[in-house]
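Deliverable D5.2: sample structural annotation.
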Amino acid sequence: MKKSTIPYCSFAILGFALLALVLVGAYLDAMDSLSILSLLSPSKLGLWFVLGSIVSLTVGMVGIICHYFKNHRKLLSALAILLIPPLTFFASLFAYSIIISNALWFPMRSEITQVTVVDTDPLVLCLNVKAITSRDTRIESALILNNNEIIAQVPSEEEWEGVWGQFTLAELPGGSEILLTLDFNTTLPSGDYLVRLTCWHNNQGSSPFTIP
């Protein structure tokens, strides 16, 4: 590579890299990710960041054209200036729309990091629950499963039917961690089980535990 083309290639590569980071940030933002890259989403950085990426790409491409196509550089440079910005903008907009439309509308927002069996008669569990997204979570119910069959839950089926859509076990702010104590008001035999937290029937964290 000739030395005189290095700055232009750098501008072009920088433009491509920035646009790629914007799309990655858009996806992470759509998933409410706690990653710092989610801050690169156009919804947070604004349109100016995307436009700056396109300008960098255009400047780089025009410089490369002027260096390698000296006989037709005016025409090719004009075409690059006219075509690269709108084509890049609409391609990025199309990719952004695909990312948003395919992102999960109800991503899992929390996870259970530890389960402690406090009591077995009746069953009382203490759960360490950690938020894994930037959005707040409402935990509505907790289920005990054995071989994928629900054998106990909080609230009970009767309570859930009576307060459908209004019951809340805990509110979990984005990025936080809470200690959740649950009384299932039932006694289970010794064995291996799975506890699962839900919100509107969506899994908000599961963890195995054992009753001795």
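Annotation notes: The mean pLDDT is 84. The chain has two domains: 3-102, 110-211.
The annotation will be released with the project's public dataset once the embargo ends.
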